Amino acid sequence: MAPRVKTLKTTLEKLHRQPELHSLAQVRDLAGLRVVVNGSRADQDRIAARIADLFRDPERPPKPPIDRRAYPRAGYRAVHLEVRREGILMEVQVRTAIQHQWAEVFEQAADRLGRGLRYGESADNDVAQAVVDRLMTCADLIDQLERGEIAYIFGPEPADIVRDAITDTLTDIAKWVEGLP
What is the CATH topology of the domain spanning 2-96? Predict the structure, then answer.
């Protein structure tokens, strides 16, 4: 679990990107928490439900979670909860370990190759596009793996091999991006 606070720069970028936000009070992720689940998608769902229960506000009906697994953005997948603590709006992102690894590598790549990649903007050059293409392939494989498609088709042992290959590939991409000028 890791707390996260938006920087002034990323907050201003968000307000510029989303003109429907008229004040900071409408930004749901000024403060946030990332919860990394060492387990399955079912474990992720259980933990998200428990967190929602812990932060239940008796004065307001709970907002439904945003399931970025079903509706990914730029390849990103997780379950997002909007919660309030002492009147402060926060976002809790619940990720599996492999979703978290992917997100961290994607963030690193976007920081090096252009933050717009996080929002689906086109890559500026062939190197950036190659990184994005590899990350999108990994994101799709992670989704197939976590939905059980790979194990269903090939069995549990090949699914474990695929999981290891994805994590190794993400590590290699992170090293490659780190070495870029």
Answer: Beta Polymerase; domain 2 (3.30.460)
